[in-house]
């Protein structure tokens, strides 16, 4: 008979969660690396002789990874169910690594190095889509993995660290891109270097954390929920014992097994409401407009007449990190719903403040503060808490497929908001932020009326909760 730990190990839990969190960092790194490389890309492909690299093509190239994100999210449920959470994350790591190398050297095997052609542009975009698939997988599976290994009383905090890692990954790549450019700051041909080599170095820099993640994910265990649902009870009990101690582990395993008999349940076995709520949480996280602010912050601050818009952008990044930590340390004390409702109302105040500044003469500092209030309120609410909900809202037997659908909705509406913001903003600054402010209020009402509080509940409790609501 196997020997199991009598007491849980906090170090063991922390170490495997930290590995999964690197996937969140890669999520942020991959989506933000294009910000430093896009001008070099435009100059490189703008010199092509066999086609005209239009603004439309450049827009597609800078956002092509989003196509992969949608694909990755959609297939994450199938992969998580068939391959398991661990092997699916390993596959995501391989995709991150190959995408970094391929984006650095898209000429590999088929094209002449340094010569921009239509075929090379296609190859580059395929590598970016491959990385996007990795992002889509990681965005669904990292929170799922963390939730399935975490004790109920720590789950919200640990899943929130994944959002912190995403924001931190974005800041890391901004800093890396800055250092890459600065390394040639005294070179008279710095612009030429950036346009031919610099953008390549930015992309390949992701290979380092991608390789680390791919190796480390091999060292962590599969989640006990997946193991139990696939008849590997001894392995599940070992993992649970290492985290919780044997007595608690046997109790949790019994709860998991009570739902395992329903392994073949269909998506709507618990009714349509659980799927609707999960998907709408994803939709609201995007249509409240946060990505429009994050992606176009320098443009927004410049339009407000600020002297150094990059300074305000960096300051907002620091604020984002700070308020994400607020969620990390309060989600298990205050609960999920209070943070979401408070954050939604705070975002509404910030958005309406910006909107009014475009029809009433106010000091420039007012809309700047309003933008930062808007962003800060997102970071302690919809940023991390939406991922917490998606990771724990669904019953065990439909979690992988329901999570895949919910995350796919995130990426689809991410694309919708990102692609519509500039024309809407150029049409009317007031209207853009008035719409976002109104949506924030609707989001608060939605959470208040329909979303259940999951603080302190086990993942197995979700089965009874949704059975009762069916």
Give a written overview of the molecule.
The protein has 470 residues and is mainly alpha-helical. It has 22 helices and no strands. The longest helix is centred in the first third of the chain and has 32 residues, at 118-149. The protein starts with 9 loop residues before the first helix and ends with a helix.
Q: Measured on Cα atoms, how large is the radius of gyration?
A: 23 Å
State the helicity in percent bands: over 70%
pLDDT average, as an integer? 83
Distance between the termini: 41 Å
Encode the helix/strand succession as letters.
HHHHHHHHHHHHHHHHHHHHHH
Indicate the proportion of strand residues.
under 5%
DSSP E strands, number: 0
Write down the overall geometry.
globular
Return residue spans where pLDDT drops below 50 for at least 5 consecutive residues. Answer: none
Class from helix and strand fractions: mainly alpha
- Main sheet specs: none
Question: DSSP helix count?
Answer: 22
């Amino acid at each position: 008979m196997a020997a199991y730990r009598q007491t849980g190990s906090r170090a063991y839990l922390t170490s495997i969660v930290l590995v999964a969190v690197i996937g969140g960092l890669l999520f942020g790194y991959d989506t933000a690396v294009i910000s430093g490389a896009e001008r070099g890309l435009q100059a490189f492909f703008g010199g092509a002789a066999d086609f005209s690299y239009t603004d439309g093509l450049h827009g597609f190239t800078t956002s092509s990874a989003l196509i992969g994100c949608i694909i990755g999210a959609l297939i994450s449920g199938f992969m998580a169910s068939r391959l398991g959470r661990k092997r699916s994350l390993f596959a995501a790591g391989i995709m991150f690594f190959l995408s970094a190398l391929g984006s650095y050297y898209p000429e590999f095997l088929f094209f002449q190095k340094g010569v921009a052609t239509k075929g090379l542009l296609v190859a580059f975009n395929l590598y970016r889509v491959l990385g996007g698939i990795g992002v889509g997988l990681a965005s669904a599976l990292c929170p799922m993995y963390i939730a399935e290994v975490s004790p109920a009383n720590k789950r919200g905090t640990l899943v929130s660290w994944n959002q912190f890692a995403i924001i931190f990954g974005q800041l890391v790549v901004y800093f890396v891109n800055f250092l890459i450019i600065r390394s040639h700051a005294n070179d008279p041909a710095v612009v030429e270097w950036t346009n031919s080599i610099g953008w390549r170095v930015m992309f390949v820099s992701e290979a380092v954390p991608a390789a680390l993640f791919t190796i480390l994910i091999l060292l962590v265990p599969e989640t006990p929920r997946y193991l139990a649902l696939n008849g590997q009870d001894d392995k599940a009990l070992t993992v649970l014992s290492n985290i919780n101690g044997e007595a608690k582990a046997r109790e949790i395993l019994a709860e998991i097994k009570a739902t395992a008999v329903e392994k073949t349940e269909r998506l709507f076995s618990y009714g349509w409401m659980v799927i609707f709520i999960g998907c709408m949480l994803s939709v609201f996280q995007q249509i409240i407009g946060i990505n429009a602010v994050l992606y176009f912050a320098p443009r927004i601050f410049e339009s407000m007449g600020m002297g150094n818009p990059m300074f305000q952008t960096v300051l907002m990044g620091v604020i984002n990190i700070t308020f994400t930590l607020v969620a990390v340390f309060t989600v298990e004390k205050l609960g999920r719903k209070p943070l979401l409702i408070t954050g939604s109302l705070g975002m509404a105040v910030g958005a309406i403040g910006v909107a009014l500044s475009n029809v009433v003469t106010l000091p420039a500092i007012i809309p700047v503060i309003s933008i930062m209030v808007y962003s800060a309120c997102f970071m302690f609410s919809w940023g991390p808490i939406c991922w917490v909900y998606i990771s724990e809202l669904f019953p065990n037997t439909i979690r992988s497929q329901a999570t895949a659908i919910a995350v796919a909705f995130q990426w689809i509406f991410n694309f919708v908001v990102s692609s519509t913001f500039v024309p809407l903003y150029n049409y009317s600054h007031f209207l853009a932020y008035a719409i976002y402010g109104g949506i924030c209020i609707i989001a608060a009402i939605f959470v208040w009326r329909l979303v259940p509080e999951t603080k302190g509940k086990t993942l197995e409790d979700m089965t009874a909760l949704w059975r009762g609501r069916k």
